[in-house]
Amino acid sequence: MGWQKEAFEALSGADGHAEGLSDYAQKREAGDFLRHAASLAMTKTADGLFDPKLVLSWLLTHLGAPSAFIGALVPLREAGALLPQLLIAPHIHAMARRKWAWAGAAAGQGLAALAITLMGLWLSGWAAGLGICLAVAVLALSRSVASVSYKDILGKTVGKARRGAATGLAASMTAGAVVLFALVLIWAPVDRFVIVVGALGLSAAFWLGAALLFATLNEEAAPGKANHSTLSQLALLKDHPDLRRFIYARGLLTGSALAPPYMVIMASQAGNGAFQALGALVLASAMASLISSYVWGRLADQSSRRVLALSGLVAAAALLLALMLDRAGLAGTW
């Protein structure tokens, strides 16, 4: 349609032939570009509303779940989204149309988020903790399927010079939505629990909507190629010591992802209304992502190794500062 082509050209700066696309895909690129941007914006916004590090941690603390369940949220989300890729990647790469894998994964995340919403309304204590952690594991597994399948789909449907525009547009839309969510948490005269449960329900709707929209993508069928040697790539760790050191360093940096739930618990125990500051935490996280993306990106152009080292130092300093404030009795101040 005409409006799709005009919007595509305005948003992507398209100026002719799309490198790497078949004739079939080029004729449908404008509509598929918009579908990619909209689907990604919905799923990324759902991620921001769902956020296990802050939002789910706050919810479990509010529901009185044991701290062990709160501490398990991030490991379940991260490990569940990464480790299964070793096993599922060969099967997804064998598919002729991988959009069905991504759409199914988005639907799986939506159903898991819906289950968490209902459990937040009906359960409390250890039952809420166990049930929500199991749902997070299902969501993470679905996320791993989406991660494996997406880049190939994008490569088949959007020209090489326009792919960054599609993902960048989605990221910009997401940032605005998460900032708006944070402002609602800070200033809306509504109980925080109601807002959080509503946000989780909205995230479920976004994931399910993205699944439906992505299923309409015009992905051309292409014979898949099964590759059952994925696990053999683990041998690279033995043969390449630099890769080993990188993985060790990157693994140690997961502490920065594991810490926020405990910071939420610290705030809940500090008193003086700090537990009501979820909006401030979400806003700080969103603004940090916006600012740091540019800063770290510029530094990475000079040295990725330096970025990794600096990020570890900055994360360690921030966590030490949080501990010092807590020990000084200042964690509950605004």
Q: Notable features of this structure?
A:
334 residues; Growth Hormone, Chain: A; 15 helices; globular
CATH class, named Mainly Alpha
Q: How many β-strands, per DSSP?
A: 0
Topology as a string of helices (H) and strands (E) = HHHHHHHHHHHHHHH
Q: Give the uncertain stretches in residue-range form.
A: none
CATH-defined topology: Growth Hormone, Chain: A
Q: What's the number of domains?
A: 1
Estimated share of beta-strand residues: under 5%
The DSSP helix count reads 15
Q: Rg from C-alpha positions?
A: 21 Å
First-last Cα distance: 52 Å
Q: CATH homologous superfamily?
A: MFS general substrate transporter like domains
Q: Fraction of residues in helices?
A: over 70%
Rounded mean pLDDT score: 81
Structural class of the helix and strand makeup? mainly alpha
Query: Architecture, CATH level 2?
Result: Up-down Bundle
**Anisotropy-based shape:** globular
